[in-house]
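batch_manifest entry 22 of 60
target: Nucleoside triphosphate pyrophosphohydrolase
source organism: Lysinibacillus xylanilyticus
requested by: lab member K.T.
priority: normal
notes from requester: please return tokens only, no post-processing; we will run our own comparison against the previous entry in this batch. if the run fails, retry once and flag.
--- input ---
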Amino acid sequence: MPVYNKLVRDLIPQIIEAGGNTCSIRVLKQGEHIEEIKAKMQEEALEFLEAASPKEAIEELADILELVHTAIQMYDVSYEQLEQIRTEKQRQRGGFSKGIYLIEVGAEAELI
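--- output ---
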């Protein structure tokens, strides 16, 4: 039996059992859960990086967004509050839509 030791979507155990297989699971405590969300976010970001098609990339972005929704629930923050923070950061520092790639900054400046 393969060992995964990773956070999976809530219905995965039922899907595995519906396929005629067995699995063992445990429910994570809150501190463990947020750490596993962070690890899963890295995994999904890497899969987004490696996506070979726009469809695959969008699938990975959907997984990342699901993890964001779960994380903000755990931090007791609404999506609207998160969006307000995002909007304020965008107003103060801009977004990422222009594709600006910083090469170098003189020693006297600290922007980042």
